From TrEMBL:
The protein, known as: Taurine-pyruvate aminotransferase
PANTHER family: AMINOTRANSFERASE, AMINOTRANSFERASE CLASS-III
Cofactor needs: pyridoxal 5'-phosphate
Entry keyword set: Aminotransferase, Pyridoxal phosphate, Pyruvate, Transferase
Pfam families: Aminotran_3
Length: 460
């Protein structure tokens, strides 16, 4: 791509950005002396910035979103056609694309039956919290209102979603948090809280039960978990964990909510992360990969059993779910999502994800042999983490600035990777990788080659 040939004056754009845009999750002080990075174009797994520099994007649009890659004209066509036919109507009425996508989605989610549309992951999760609170009021005499979330998990940026964030540094400046949210311990075996034990998975799940008993089972309505923790360190739950979690939820009549905002729609090589573990959730939320960022859409999916609890009856006309999301009625969302799913199916991207994910983990393990700074490699499909430690025995995390130096060096080499980002005190030491599901062997090898070079440069 030749940016110099573009008609718009890119200098003006950079200055307009510097003067008027407030970037997400960004310290702006450096922009007083360096230019903000502006991306101009994307194709497949590659993006180009305003200087014309090309990057191999190992993060699917920076935050594991663009699952089918950039520049998909068939999705753009589907969105355009939909916008011309009907761009919007409040979702208290239905739409053709909304009905078709819901049907298609449910066909991939045995046991689930209803899709509630909104437009961000945070919002999709808050819908669940609201449903649970409404069920507590209507069906449990005001009990069962508490929401359990797990240390190191993240569920969104709005205040109630933040109240369910197990990432202390994300929430510490935004209190007070709303009440009724209770943390359970993480399940990262590499940093076991229980010493070296054979049954870590089961033990980590039992820790949830201990919190339930402490709080009182009749106060707890929901357990909200990521299937594989994303920004909290790419944590693949240990063997035996999910079976026990499901058992505990059933034992205490607690609904299980799986936050698939990152893992959903192919990231781990199955349609949904939870399907790796044979669990049967009551709620599943998803956002990023649903339409790969071609339109804003998120979904809160639940069972017929839950849905039935919101049906009107003569005695209680206020029993329906008293919630609306204006842009949950944008029909471009489901139109893009339908085409996104078709691409994943027709191009065999789930199988590709499994194969390329294996290669990515294999390459990272090979790097581990050459670089003592890699303490642990974790992965599920095209979703991998490499934890950097100063000492493999003590597992002391390397300083965050060194992790950021690795990320910066990869970017200088033209490869975009990520890291746990100022969310966990002392533990922002995991490199994160989530390439698009279309990745080829050469892409995977290019990513890990850049990481290897960066590790040599930063750590010797
Ligand atoms: N859940 C998880 C697991 C996430 O990673 C995120 C975003 N990173 C969210 C929820 C919130 O999604 P959104 O930014 O679309 O509100």
């Amino acid at each position: 791509m030749n940016i110099a040939a573009q008609p718009n004056d890119i200098r003006d754009v950079i200055e307009a950005d510097r003067a008027n845009v407030w970037h997400h999750l960004t310290q702006h002080k450096p922009f007083e002396t360096v230019d903000p990075r502006i991306f101009v174009e994307g194709k497949g797994m590659r993006v180009w910035d305003a200087t014309g520099k090309e990057y191999l994007d190992a993060l699917s649009g920076g935050v594991w979103t663009v699952n089918v890659g950039f520049g998909r004209t068939s999705i753009a066509d589907a969105v355009r056609d939909q916008l011309v036919q009907l761009n919007y109507f409040a979702n208290s009425a239905g739409s053709i694309a909304g009905a078709k996508f819901a049907q298609k989605l449910i066909s991939k989610m045995p046991g689930m039956s209803r899709v509630y549309y909104s437009n961000s992951g945070s919002e999709a999760n808050e819908k669940v919290f609201k449903m649970v609170r409404q069920m507590a009021h209507r069906h449990h005499g005001g009990k069962k209102y508490k929401i359990l979330y797990r240390e190191r998990d993240y569920h969104g940026t709005t205040i109630a979603a933040l109240a369910a964030a197990g990432q202390q540094q994300r929430r510490e400046q935004y209190g007070p948090m709303p009440p009724g949210f209770v943390e359970v311990p993480h399940c990262l075996e590499y940093r076991s809280q229980y010493g070296e034990i054979d049954n870590y998975g089961e033990r980590a799940a039992e820790a949830i039960e201990e919190v339930i008993l402490r709080e009182g089972p009749d106060t707890i309505g929901l357990l909200c978990l990521e299937p594989v923790t994303a920004g909290g360190g790419v944590i693949v739950p240990p063997k035996g964990y999910w079976e026990k979690v499901q058992e505990i939820c059933r034992k205490y009549d607690i609904l299980l909510h799986i936050d698939e905002v990152v893992c959903g729609v192919g990231r781990t090589g199955l349609w949904f992360g939870y399907q790796n573990y044979g669990i049967e959730p009551d709620f599943v939320t998803m956002a990023k990969g649903v339409a790969s960022g071609y339109a804003a859409i998120s979904c809160t999916v639940t069972t017929e059993k839950v849905f039935e609890m919101f049906k009107d009856d003569a005695d209680d006309p206020m029993s329906y779910f008293r919630d609306i999301s204006t842009f949950g009625g944008c029909v471009a969302g489901p139109a893009a999502a339908l085409e996104n799913m078709r691409i994943i199916e027709d191009e065999g991207l789930l199988d590709n994800t499994l194969a390329m994910g294996k290669r990515l983990v294999g390459n990272l393990e090979a790097l581990m042999e050459r670089h003592a700074v890699i303490g642990d490699v974790r992965g599920a499909g095209l979703f991998c983490g490499a934890e950097l430690v100063a000492d493999r025995k003590t597992k002391e995390p390397v300083a965050e600035k060194l992790v950021q130096a690795v990320v910066a060096d990869c970017a200088a080499q033209g490869v975009i990777i990520g890291a746990t980002n100022r969310s966990l005190p002392g533990l922002n030491n995991t490199l994160c990788l989530a390439p698009a599901l279309i990745a080829k062997e050469t892409d995977i090898d290019g990513i890990t080659e850049a990481i290897g070079k960066a590790l040599t440069k930063v750590f010797g």
